[in-house]
Amino acid sequence: MEPIHIIGAGLAGSEAAWQIARAGVPVVLHEMRPVVETFAHKTGDFAEMVCSNSFRSDDDENNAVGQLHWEMRAAGGLIMAMADRHKLPAGGALAVDRNAFSADVTAALRAEPLISVEAGEIAELPREGRWIIATGPLTSAALGAAIRVETGAESLAFFDAIAPIVYAESIDMSTAWRQSRYDKGETEEERTAYINCPMTKAEYEAFIDALLAADKTEFHEGETAGYFDGCLPIEVMAERGRETLRFGPMKPVGLTNPHRPDEKPYAVVQLRRDNALGTLYNIVGFQTKMKYGAQTEVLRMIPGLQDAGFARLGGIHRNTFLNSPTLLDDRMRLRSRPNLRFAGQVTGVEGYVESAAMGLLAGRMAAAEAKGGDLAPPSGNTAMGALIHHITGGAEAKTFQPMNVNFGLFPPIDAKGGRRGRKARYPAYTTRAKDDFRAWLAGQ
Ligand SMILES: Cc1cc2nc3c(=O)[nH]c(=O)nc-3n(C[C@H](O)[C@H](O)[C@H](O)COP(=O)(O)OP(=O)(O)OC[C@H]3O[C@@H](n4cnc5c(N)ncnc54)[C@H](O)[C@@H]3O)c2cc1C
């Protein structure tokens, strides 16, 4: 049987290689480190965790990433097995001894007879054979350029800044309201596409003070501090002048607050729908490098967001990722070159666990195909299915940004209830997810 080639032995590529070998299909794993280094990786080992050592919550009843852990364990995932073996005490989180973890992932893959490893950078998109590209947020410059030629310059983001995403149901609609600026749009849905949060002068001034005082993340060594002018972090805008935001993303024009129609807001924060389900909203133009703790505090000063739950907080780092909703099919293949599959962070998921999960799926799909079959993704009710449905279809392509797994990606079980109601529903989501995931595994 022809081998499946994988580019990148990170979290995603390592898991993909393992799954393919388990299915009895040979694999060639291409990894450029340590021959070519990245600014963030420190070793030549596979599945290196470049920053924190946490796989986040391990609660598979009440937490979406915990549910993803469960699914990966159920599918015999190597990354979870090694994380469990090298678990460190960390309360409800799954923290890992990163060096021992990577060393054991490397050893397991090198010991697998169906896997051969080739050191070195792949700089071109391969024309022949079946390939999985799992080169991550720090995809080498040459390969990044080749992907850009194939997909179009606009499609491969070399990132920069991310805006926070809020759970729609945590927004206080007795303060906020739905309206597009100047009521623009042909349909009622378009005319009410945005959620608006109004600020008085005093609230705006207090917000700017807090923003300027907040703790910020500094760039990693080797990162350039240049911003694209079109997406400056809000604190950088505020540093340029206290009124800058009021003439930028917080401009109050073309909007009327139905709760107080006679009062003109001094500033308005807008949120835009972020997924087809309408469960997630991103704060428009609010890319930020405030540290997470400070960020939550400052953003909750926005009227209407005082109880906001965040599906993802804002942040800044270099990140190469595809506009997957337009470029990939639901088998994670590049529509224009179906012999190429993508997996991991480069597909627009965010995080170690999510990246490894996409490697697991891509590996299983590629192996099924190599054996003459076809494997559909698990249902959107599962954590893995919710993620792949989001990146390959559910997300808004125009504003597509890397995404962590979260319950906002799951089809709602019951639309009623506030924040408390939402939390009470988590076990129902995870029970449904487990049933569907078991069925998906049993069907293979
Ligand atoms: C600075 C920084 C900090 C981060 N911090 C966190 C964090 O704290 N927590 C978290 O969950 N996530 C974090 N992330 C995201 C993290 O990178 C991903 O979660 C995860 O590593 C992605 O897995 P992956 O397999 O897609 O990519 P990676 O793990 O990066 O693996 C990609 C592999 O491909 C190799 N490669 C690249 N180009 C080529 C090529 N042309 N030829 C051959 N090999 C190639 C690389 O050497 C690498 O080994 C961070 C990312 C960055 C950049």
Task: Please give a handful of descriptors for the protein shown.
single chain; 444 residues; alpha+beta; FAD/NAD(P)-binding domain; Elongation Factor Tu (Ef-tu), domain 3; 2 domains; six-stranded mixed sheet; six-stranded antiparallel sheet; 13 helices; globular; binds flavin-adenine dinucleotide
What is the structure about, briefly put?
The chain has helices at residues 11-22, 64-74, 78-85, 98-111, 141-151, 188-191, 201-213, 234-240, 292-299, 324-327, 352-370, 383-394, 419-442; strands at residues 4-7, 27-31, 54-57, 87-88, 93-96, 115-119, 130-133, 157-158, 161-162, 165-167, 177-178, 194-199, 267-273, 280-283, 310-312, 315-316, 320-321, 333-334, 337-342. The chain is of the alpha+beta class and 444 residues long. The protein has 2 domains: 4-156 and 321-442, 3-Layer(bba) Sandwich (FAD/NAD(P)-binding domain), CATH 3.50.50.60; 161-318, Beta Barrel (Elongation Factor Tu (Ef-tu), domain 3), CATH 2.40.30.260.
